[in-house]
Write a structure and sequence with these properties.
Length: 411
């Protein structure tokens, strides 16, 4: 990739991601892509970075999770997998083929998983005092793949379920992603961030395997056979531990829970609440729309707009004198009444624009359309029909002078 092509990438990012990522995040993205051009298999890794960027933007548009945050996580996990496979060939082989055959010793597998976790926690900067033990257990038909138990001792012990529904020991990317997920908890991250890392880590490991020609699961081991052999030989794979049953009360890996969007994984919810989300797939988009005003800073809005651009903020008998101001970048709004007082009622309040009004297509998609559908807040007393009619009426007014001018030109 030439410097000119990198410049093109930068221009595309700056133009297309305005409002989705900060200037610093965009700059970091270009720097990241530029650095990847110096790495082995550079072309593939640059494509990966741009693919992750595109997916991050789609994530924001569909779930409301910040694109810059998602891309940063993907970047960190790409780099973590790259460095592991580049700097630790033996450790990589161990992860990819952690049980070479059905006679592999359970304690050796447990030690290998502990080595993997410790390496990841080193890269995350987890302090020694915040780390616990790494163990394996047979969770039977439990949906829990792994757990981090802080408990009363706050030791951050990690347990890998190697049973029927547990970690697939034949798949190095599965081992890697679960180790990253649980290590993220020991680093203080909640379920939302840990799950973002899970998805990114698995894909990064698979891609690095492909770049480096690494194979995983070469033994084709039948895991249930291996577990049974280990139990019959007297090794200590725990079954149905108290820790595991405690984790099951928090069904973070239950199939019902897995259907919800990542933004909502920091708080334990019961299954009924999650199915409610599944029946309302637009909820994350709607909530992102309602939360937009958390970003609004009225004091930055210093440019007064004409009244024909203020139709949604002059609703009601006492609101006709309201005046609208926007910030120079078009993102922040302020509405004041005839006395100069800030208007904060849900019907006429100023809101944050994800796209500047002068970028009419993006502004229409990201700001106007959600408003027409849902209003400013759940307490907005206007209706979708009334809001739409206001927009249509203003459009007709805007066309009227053009018709008069055309008629005058014909005379």
């Amino acid at each position: 990739m030439t410097s000119g092509q990198l410049t093109d990438v930068g221009n595309v990012l700056t133009g297309d991601l305005n409002g989705l990522m900060s200037e610093g995040e965009i700059g970091q993205t270009v720097q990241d892509v530029g650095g990847l051009t110096q790495a082995p298999k550079a072309t593939g890794r640059v494509v990966d970075a741009l693919s992750d960027l595109g997916n991050s933007v789609v994530t924001q548009l569909t779930t409301g999770i910040d694109a810059g945050e998602v891309y940063q996580v993907k970047t960190e996990e790409r780099q973590r997998a790259l460095e592991k496979q580049r700097d630790d060939v033996n450790g990589t082989a161990q992860i990819n083929n952690i049980t070479e055959d059905v006679t592999a010793d359970a304690e050796q597998v447990q030690d290998a998983l502990a080595d993997t976790v410790n390496g990841i926690q080193d890269s995350m900067g987890v302090a020694e005092g915040d780390r616990g033990e790494v163990t394996i257990y047979d969770g039977g038909d439990s949906p829990v793949v792994a757990y981090t138990d802080t408990g009363e001792t706050n030791q951050n012990d990690i347990g890998f379920n190697v049973g029927e529904n547990g970690v697939d020991l034949n798949d190095g990317s599965e081992i890697w992603k679960v180790a990253v997920h649980e290590s993220a908890h020991t680093d203080g991250e909640g379920e939302r961030m840990a799950h973002l890392r899970t998805d990114a880590a698995k894909r990064a490991w698979e891609r690095e395997n492909a770049y480096n020609g690494n194979m995983t699961g070469a033994s084709g081991m039948e895991q249930s056979e291996w577990v049974n052999n280990q139990k019959n030989s007297g090794t200590t794979i725990q079954s149905g531990t108290a820790k595991a049953s405690d984790v099951e009360e928090f069904d973070a890996y239950n199939p019902q829970w897995m259907l919800r969007n990542a933004y909502n994984r920091d708080t334990a919810r019961n299954a009924d609440e999650d199915w409610e989300l599944i029946g309302d797939p637009l909820r994350p988009v709607r909530q992102n729309h309602y939360n937009r005003s958390n970003n609004n800073e009225p004091d930055l809005a210093t440019i007064q707009l004409p009244q024909d651009m203020n139709i949604f903020h002059t609703q009601g008998e006492n609101a006709q004198g309201n005046i609208k101001f926007v910030s120079p970048d078009g993102h922040h709004e302020k509405i004041v009444d005839a006395n100069g007082d800030l208007v904060t009622d849900p019907l006429n309040m100023g809101t944050y624009n994800f796209a500047s009004p002068d970028k009419w297509a993006r502004h229409g998609l990201k700001d106007v359309a959600p408003y027409l559908i849902w209003g400013n807040t759940p307490d907005d007393s206007s209706t979708g029909f009334n809001r739409t009619m206001l927009l249509v009426g203003q459009g007709v007014k805007n066309l009227m002078p053009k018709k008069e001018d055309n008629a005058a030109n014909k005379k």
